[in-house]
Automatic annotation (TrEMBL):
Residues 1-12 have a biased composition (Basic and acidic residues). The keyword Ribonucleoprotein does not apply. Keywords: Metal-binding, Repeat, Zinc, Zinc-finger. One of its GO terms (cellular component) is nucleus. Transmembrane segments: none annotated. Pfam families: zf-C2H2. This is C2H2-type domain-containing protein. Residues 59-87, 88-116, 117-145, 146-174, 175-203, 204-232, 233-261, 262-290, 291-319, 320-348, 349-377, 378-406, 407-435, 436-464, 465-493, 494-522, 523-551, 552-580, 581-609 form the C2H2-type domain. SUPFAM superfamilies: beta-beta-alpha zinc fingers (SSF57667). Residues 1-20 are annotated as: Disordered. GO terms for molecular function: zinc ion binding. It comes from the Eukaryota. The keyword Zinc applies.
């Protein structure tokens, strides 16, 4: 075998040519006639052939006739099933285990019963002394000079590298999954794959966040990385940290080295891993969606996409909570994006043509596609209108062409075009639960986040984010950034394609299109039959008109108002004496727009009705 020394690295290739490695092939003279694999002893070859190729199970249980390949497996079965020997009992609870290792795992995960061994060089903690010694040997003491040229894994000695090449890269994968064109090296790996991927079984639950996993190893890494926040593997090129060494290697290969060895023969797109190429071909070129939701019949390309859909849409679970504002999300990725863009104010994606920055890559791609390329790829098949995103096209077809699925309320049979509108209606109209009450003014809120914002802004008067240009203050950084963009930069990035009116916020554009151009009044008052284009207007109407709420008091005359805007108009006109509205016919001035309108109708309008 050739040994190539390069910058203190010894890379051992698979082309065995020299006589230096006498242990690799010379002593393996017994070859399997089925797969041509060589063994040192004839007995080892026979055992291999009987267990792997013939699937022989020579060890039979005399009580239940179950058969096993190995005597150790039969003994373990006999102890656990028939003798009832659960010799290892947990001293914290009454649970018993067959193996001591199972008891140790139970105590570590369920009771956190452990003694930490701390590394004196990096302060990382371990549950056993052997794990600490192994860590110190790998990271702080031994140089790994032997590098596998296939996967970049390093080894401290040549023997370890040879064993790795023989077992990982040369070993055949004889166990094929009949549902998925994937092969495995052992039957146990195949069974794990079938259990977790095709059956969707997740038997290992985290006791902190109730997230479930198919394998106990995945549960362990989840608890280590998420709840203990241990990320000990850092990239030496971008300083990003990872909880798994494999994740670091994958990150280095895909982002910094990027060897894309697998090319699609249909579109020439290249991938770093064969499994990514396989998924691309199934999803893009074959259009396969093999996983169907049993509740709404929606189809998905991958099983975990379907599981995530069921958890967030049908169960309404939001397991990821922001530790800064307590807002909850159904997906961890959405939480991370929220924290990065809202609380950190980061905009990591910059347009190389106009230098505009975005918090999410998808927003940058939409910007480049529309502004610089002029593309609108999604066309309506009923009219010739085109849209940037598929979701916008879907909403257009629902509202304009009535090609929609209505969501009906089970209590009052009212219908809504969006599921979230139905849920909001049920929460307000039928449940009306406001479990979070302010202890200062007894105002109630449906969400804890709304209560916290109310306390901070109304009672504490806190506005911690100041604009350095006009010194105006805001409750959070997101509002400050929006203020700077729309007021000081005068940016109106969202244009209406029907009237060319521009808006500073996308949500305002969508509301404008819905209420002005589509004329939609989807929110009806169940007390007076008034209809509104926005849910917020309906809620405000019910609070001020029907419930008689007047939450905004003037601090000068103690007069109360139902709307904050009414209070501001009162203070400007009455206490400040400002008259900003001038009649264009007689130049008379008024303190608010309603007085001006009333004046024009009464004085200047020829259609006077004194009845």
């Amino acid at each position: 075998m050739d040994i190539i020394e390069k910058k203190s690295e010894k890379v051992v290739s698979e082309n065995n040519s020299s006589q230096e490695d006498v242990v690799v092939s010379d002593e393996k003279q017994h070859t399997c006639d089925i797969r041509q694999e060589a063994f040192t002893l004839e007995s080892n070859m026979t055992t291999h052939r009987d267990t792997i190729h013939n699937e022989r199970k020579d060890y039979s249980c005399n009580k239940c006739e179950k058969t096993f390949k190995f005597r150790s497996h039969l003994s373990r079965h006999h102890i656990s099933e028939h003798k009832g020997r659960n010799n290892f009992a947990c001293d914290r609870c009454e649970k018993k285990f067959v193996k001591k290792s199972s008891l140790f795992t139970h105590q570590r995960l369920a009771h956190k019963d452990r003694v930490d061994f701390t590394c004196d060089k990096c302060e990382r903690k371990f549950e056993s002394k052997s794990s600490l010694l192994k860590h110190k040997k790998i990271f702080h003491e031994v140089f790994k000079d032997y590098l596998c040229e296939r996967c970049a894994k390093r080894f401290g000695n040549k023997h370890g590298l040879l064993v790795h090449i023989e077992s990982v890269h040369k070993r055949h994968k004889d166990f094929a999954c009949n549902n998925f064109e994937k092969n495995f090296r052992s039957k146990s790996d195949l069974l794990k794959h079938q259990k977790t991927v095709h059956e969707g079984r997740k038997d290992c639950a985290c006791h902190k966040c109730e997230k479930q996993f198919g394998l106990e190893s995945n549960l362990f890494w989840h608890q280590t990385i998420v709840h203990q926040n241990q990320k000990d593997y850092a990239s030496d090129k971008c300083k990003k940290k990872f909880g798994h060494k494999s994740s670091l290697l994958l990150h280095t290969r895909t982002l910094h080295e990027s060897p894309k060895d697998y090319a699609c023969d249909k579109c020439e797109k290249e991938f770093t891993q064969k499994v990514h190429l396989f998924k691309h071909q199934r999803a893009v070129h074959e259009g396969r969606k093999d996983y169907t939701c049993d509740k709404c019949e929606k189809k998905f390309r991958q099983n975990w996409h379907m599981v995530r859909h069921q958890k967030t849409f049908h169960e309404g679970r939001k397991d990821y909570e922001c530790d800064k504002c307590e807002k909850k999300f159904g997906q961890k990725q959405n939480l991370l994006v929220h924290q990065k863009t809202v609380h950190d104010g980061r905009k990591d994606f910059s347009c190389n043509e106009c230098q505009k920055k975005f918090g999410q890559k998808s927003h940058l791609l939409d910007h480049q596609k529309v502004v610089h390329e002029g593309r609108r790829d999604f066309a309506c098949d009923s009219c010739e209108k085109k849209f940037i995103q598929k979701s916008t096209l879907f909403r257009h077809q629902q509202t304009v062409h009535k090609n929609r699925i209505d969501y009906a309320c089970s209590q009052c049979e009212k219908k809504f075009r969006q599921r979230r509108s139905l849920l909001l209606h049920q929460n307000i109209a039928h449940e009306g639960q406001k479990n979070y009450q302010c202890d200062k003014c007894e105002k109630k809120f449906r969400q804890k986040q709304n209560l916290l914002v109310h306390l901070k802004t109304v009672h504490e008067g806190r506005k911690d984010f100041s604009c350095h240009k006009c010194e105006k203050k805001f409750v959070n950084k997101a509002y400050l950034l929006l203020h700077q963009k729309t007021v000081h930069e005068s940016r109106r990035d969202f244009a209406c394609d029907s009237c060319e009116k521009k808006f500073g916020y996308k949500i305002v554009l969508l509301k404008h299109q819905r209420t002005v151009h589509e004329g939609r009044r989807d929110y009806s008052c169940d007390k007076c039959e008034n209809k509104f284009g926005l849910m917020s207007n309906l809620v405000r109407h019910q609070r001020t008109v029907h419930d008689g709420h007047k939450d905004y008091a003037c601090n000068k005359c103690e007069k109360k108002f139902g709307l904050k805007q009414q209070l501001l108009r009162h203070q400007i006109a009455v206490h400040e004496g400002r008259k900003d509205y001038t009649c264009d016919k007689c130049e008379k001035k008024f303190g608010n727009k309603s007085d001006l309108t009333r004046h024009q109708n009464a004085v200047h309008d020829s259609r006077k009705n004194f009845a």
